[in-house]
Amino acid sequence: MVAYNAEESSSAITVNGNPISLLIVDDDDTVRETQESFFNMYGVKTECAGTGEEALEICAKTNFDVIITDFKMPGMSGLELLHRLNEKLVIETTEVIILTAYGSLESAKEATRAGAYNYLLKPIDMEKLLMEVENAATTSQLRRELYVLKHSDVQKAPAFFEFKSPRMRETMDHLQMAANSDSAILLLGESGVGKEVAANSVHSNSPRANNAFIKLHCAALSSGTLESELFGHEKGSFTGATRERKGRFELASGGTIFLDEISTISMSTQVKLLRVLQEKQLERVGGNKTISVDFRLITASNENLKDLIKSGRFRKDLYFRVGVIPIKIPSLRDMQDDIPKLSRFFIKGFCNTMGKKLISVSGDALRVLTGYSWPGNIRELQNVLERAVVLDKNGIIEKDDLPSELTKETGKAKLEIVGDQTLKIAVGEYEKLFILKTLERNGNNVTKSARKLNITRRNLQQKISRYQIKVR
Description:
The chain is of the alpha/beta class.
């Protein structure tokens, strides 16, 4: 076969000036050669594989914009190949098109759920296939650029992730809309849910994105040190102040300042903070010169500020200033559908950082990860996966490689057949365990748990009473 030089033809297709890379997977030699010859005419860089196993070996060494695979092949099918590519995170930046002569609605749905870009029936119109490849490559290269720019730091991943969870998708929509304004944002949520990451996302998508993003963890500093950090200080204003120093508000001027755990700020510092927020002016510690500042404020708290107002620990007028747009970040246990993809994403990031070959996750391990309640949220998930990557020896994370507290918790809801139980008793036992687990995952909130179980609140309360479940 004669190689085609794309640079010599005006018919060559590119995406953003880059040639398209394509892997063709088919057990029929004639089909592979025909498709390869056709795509070469349009300057597409192609490689071929005769089996799914061979395709996986090639993908371990080379990245592709698009993979075209036949659905029915000896050994590994196209759908099985798609699942394996999923496990190895290949389709994070590669689009897969499945071709089949044995189409069915169910197989099309399964392919789409598994992440296929499209599912096409044979015989294939090659011009149409070319258009599909070009569109898929455009999507692939955009995703790759986004990955490089925004996912290089694994800590930033959740802010730019495509979530399945309706609650998190709604939260991300709110963050995106809020980013376009200059109003103060208050991020609420449990420790470890990614409030700092969300703040970074807001800044990155705001008109202030090209200016500074300054952050400060308020709980880590004493009241005096915190004021110096926020407002700056003049030389000689206190012991150790050997030079003039700008505070975080000055450094953030023109950009965004993020104050984490604002609930821990003392009442005296809250008064000074309120003035800065109202007037956009400050004086450094030990100084009397008024300095004007221009910043966008984002704060975060894992405590309910309204409760702190009632107990006299937080100023009501300050709350109205910082909480113009309150946004709740869901806990990880409310985003179980996202845990497999998040896990694979973090694993890939850790493997890249450590220079290790990409590690996959077994089905049993994924079931443990999705069944755990994650009290430490995304931060805990990252910790568990980083440990697993560091200690990995076999290139795959198994159930036994995870901490014992995960496997113990997810094993609690297993049903055992005891003696000559009737079906009614066995079903009742399982229903009780299922309700207990759902309540636990939803913070013992009956209304939220009923919604997750797809039953009425009254129905759930009746079951709680019947099974004598104690709800804290």
